[in-house]
Specification:
The chain is α+β, with helices and mostly antiparallel strands. The protein contains seven helices and eleven strands. A hairpin with a 2-residue loop joins strand 8 and strand 9.
């Protein structure tokens, strides 16, 4: 009961301030962070594209554990945005749910292949860079060498999961501009969640050995949070709930917060009607259609990539 009261107070305090959750009284407030860099000036995709300077494959995904980690300022208010990160922090701190190990294992197993083709005349300085992101296929079906640095992949001809972002490189740091549609792929054990992003931005340190200290951020429309994220997340939480070595504290937390009917399973409806998921749905913080009403939930991850070669679809 104490755990239920504790999480309930955390959720209520966040809902009261919506996107302002994170003040000095917030029990999930992270350590102070450096001031947010202003968004770079908007640039259009150049008519004449520069050559390909770096082809790479995402080799690591690092989930956020709070509302500011691995985040960018998506709405230009000078504050980084990551409401999904706040939910993941709640799940980890209050319910002892850590999704990072599953993502690590599934990415290594080749369950999600995300390719990047950075077009630039130089990896040190380029005023009109362009980065293409797409899902890919492992041409040799051997995941053990996917991150060898020389692995060939084929980009998939999937327009729904392809993005092209203009940007600039200064002193080896890439920052995309003119936020556009994009995607993020999160490989869970049950299924890979491929989620659309709006206002997509990428920042990274780029070099011949890949992209490091990279952040992929954007806003997931609320409708897709319900239709695409909820089913996959429910299946993953159900799998964790069934593990025989789950700690008694975690098992009780699952039962209290997610297993509404007490049948020992987590159904999608139980997840979407839970306080934790309801918090996410009720704190949409990004207005993607400029009508003055937030309609999407901010999200950000850190990632790394290693060199590869990319064949056209």
């Amino acid at each position: 009961m104490a755990r239920r009261a504790n999480l309930g107070l955390v959720l209520i305090s966040c809902l009261m301030v919506v996107v302002g959750c994170g003040g000095e009284d917030d029990p999930l407030a992270p350590p102070p962070v450096d001031p947010v860099d202003p968004a770079p000036p908007t640039l259009a995709i150049p008519q004449i594209l520069p050559p390909s300077a770096l082809q790479s494959v995402m080799s690591q995904i690092i989930l956020p554990t709070n509302g500011t980690e691995h985040s960018l300022d998506l709405d230009g208010d000078g504050v980084v945005d990551n409401q999904v990160g706040r939910l993941l922090g709640l799940l980890k701190s209050e319910l002892e749910i850590d999704l990072q190990p599953t993502l690590d294992a599934q990415l290594q197993a080749g369950k999600a292949i995300v390719l990047f083709d950075l077009l630039a005349s130089s990896l040190w300085s380029e005023e009109q860079a362009v980065i293409h992101a797409s899902l890919g296929r492992d041409l040799d079906d051997d995941a053990t060498n996917n991150f060898s640095g020389v692995e060939p992949f084929q980009a998939l001809a999937d327009v729904l999961h392809t993005s092209t972002l203009p940007g600039a490189i200064s002193a080896g740091k890439l920052a995309t501009t003119n936020p556009a549609a994009g995607f993020v792929a999160l490989p869970f054990l049950s299924k890979t969640a491929i989620l659309p992003l709006r206002k997509t931005r990428i920042q990274a340190t780029v070099a011949a050995d890949g992209m490091q200290q990279a952040v992929l951020a954007g806003a997931i429309p609320v409708a897709e949070v319900i239709s695409l994220l909820a089913p996959v997340l429910a299946a993953e939480l159900d799998r964790l709930y069934r593990l025989p070595d789950l700690s008694p504290v975690a098992r009780q937390a699952f039962k209290t917060w997610l297993d509404a009917d007490g049948d020992g399973t987590i159904a999608e409806q139980e997840l979407t009607s839970s306080d934790a998921f309801g918090f996410l749905l009720h704190t949409a913080d990004i207005d993607t259609d400029d009508d003055g009403t937030p309609d999407a939930v901010s999200f950000g991850i850190a990632f790394r990539s290693v060199p590869c070669s990319i064949q056209a679809p």
